[in-house]
Amino acid sequence: MTTKYRVEYALKSHRRDGFIEWIKGLLAVPFVLHSEPAAFINGVGTGEDVTQATRHQYAAILSDVEALIKDQLNHEKNGTPELAKIKHLVPTVGSFFTELPLEQAFYVQDSKRAISSRRLVSPSFNDVRLILNSAQILSLANGDLPLKLVTLDGDVTLYDDGKSLTRDSNVIPVLLELLKRDIAIGIVTAAGYSDTSGTRYTERLEGLIHAITISTDLTDQQKQNLLVMGGESNFMFRYSVTSERLVWVEPEEWGLPVMNTWQEDDIQNLLDLAEEVLASCKQAMNLSGLLVRKSRAVGIVPMPGKKMIRENLEEVVLGAQRRLEFSELGKQIHFCAFNGGSDVWVDVGDKRLGVIALQRYLGQISGRQTLHVGDQFASIGANDFKARLAACTVWVADPSETVDALTELCGYIDKRTASVEKEQQHKSFLHH
Ligand code: IMP
Ligand code: MG
């Protein structure tokens, strides 16, 4: 069993998040020391004192991790990133745009999830993921620069896989709350529809577009702060107050210089290579899939009424990734191969470019002032992962977590605004 586990681990390491696993490992120590394997045999639960002691130790660990992130930020500022301690401890860790108040975030999540009250189940991947999310949200709401842009993935983040943002969606009210606070919204989705009328995006986002159109408390400027970036980084649309719908934005207005270096022939040749891999996987594994070719993407989608199993989708995605990353064209042109849950796509471009294009188009917004919310953050075969290079991120598991995270964000922003106002009132009172 051990051997099989190890082999699987080696092949699936791309699906693990090194930083989250490492924090989980640190929290496992106090958990084990305070665990009570015999709890519940002689009665129910354990005393508050054990919970308190465990909480204290979890908080102390997270405070230490918080300091390690601060250390990395300092080293990056001083041009010595190689000396950052955390890089040595967790080699796969990325860069951070902001400090992360992990201790405070732990208390927030502990009060919701009762992490330190558990004696038999250790702090989990999801516990740690949600602590990191809260820390990022706290930090963005309280930063020295205001949050300007929230980008959101579509499938699984805003609506269930393959579904649409309908008028009854719980996500809509909180998106309007962001707009009301002068925060722009960019929906950065892999779904690629090149039709410049924006009909397909309008259909899928109808509930939100309708809510914005009829809103009486958003200004025109706030309404125009809804943008869509489709096909990862290929097609941009913006809400227009005059036409009350999404309108196409010409690539000349937002395209990044690197995109202009890609020749159309090369793009199509890259997609041909990807298509070859998808076709050969389809044949070799006898997949019930159909190949779909678009102007900026190629995919394999399930035949009507059929399903492709997860393992085979992963095989296709890893195969395509390898074929392209070792090709000459794949070194020049940015691409993104990912497993969409029931299909596999290779897109030209990626969400890093999509987010950067929005930041530039809206006026040089920095990564520290941008939050990307998505569900796909594994290092290979997932398409939100690249957005980490351009923005702070929150990793959600479904649309209800998106609602929770954005509600938490608005709450902290309001608290901060109220305390700043109070301070100003106090100052002007002292002046008089
Ligand atoms: P996202 O989660 O919003 O990034 O959307 C991902 C899903 O969009 C994929 O799983 C596909 O089912 C769907 N999709 C539709 N068209 C495309 C395309 O051109 N490229 C990639 N995904 C697409
Ligand atoms: Mg998604």
Q: Could you give a quick summary of the protein structure above?
A:
With 432 residues, the chain is an alpha/beta fold.
Q: What layout of secondary structure does this protein have?
A:
Layout (H helix, E strand, L loop, with lengths): L1 H11 L5 H17 L13 H30 L7 H5 L12 H12 L11 H17 L7 E4 L18 H10 L3 E5 L10 H6 L1 H9 L5 H4 L2 E5 L4 E6 L4 E5 L1 H4 L2 H4 L3 H21 L4 E5 L3 E6 L7 H16 L2 H5 L2 E5 L4 E5 L2 H11 L8 E5 L17 E4 L3 H33 L1
Parallel strand pairs: 1-2, 1-10, 2-3, 10-11
Antiparallel strand pairs: 3-4, 4-5, 6-7, 7-9, 8-9
Helix pairs in contact: 2-3, 3-5, 5-6, 6-17, 7-9, 7-17, 13-14
The protein binds inosinic acid (IMP) and magnesium ion.
What does this structure look like?
50% of the residues lie in helices and 13% in strands. The strands form two sheets. A seven-stranded mixed β-sheet has the order 5-4-3-2-1-10-11. A four-stranded antiparallel β-sheet has the order 6-7-9-8, covered by helices on one side. The model has no long low-confidence stretch (mean pLDDT 95). The chain has 17 helices and eleven strands. The protein starts with a helix and ends with a helix. The protein has 432 residues and is an alpha/beta fold. The chain folds into three domains: 16-141, no CATH class; 149-254 and 368-418, HAD superfamily/HAD-like (Rossmann fold), CATH 3.40.50; 264-348, Alpha-Beta Complex (Hypothetical Protein Ta0175, Chain: A, domain 2), CATH 3.90.1070. Bound molecules: inosinic acid and magnesium ion. Magnesium ion (MG) binds at residues 153, 155-157, 374-376.
Question: Which keywords apply here?
Answer:
7-stranded mixed sheet, binds magnesium ion, 17 helices, 3 domains, binds inosinic acid, 4-stranded antiparallel sheet, Rossmann fold, 50% helix, 432 residues, Hypothetical Protein Ta0175, Chain: A, domain 2, alpha/beta, 11 strands, single chain
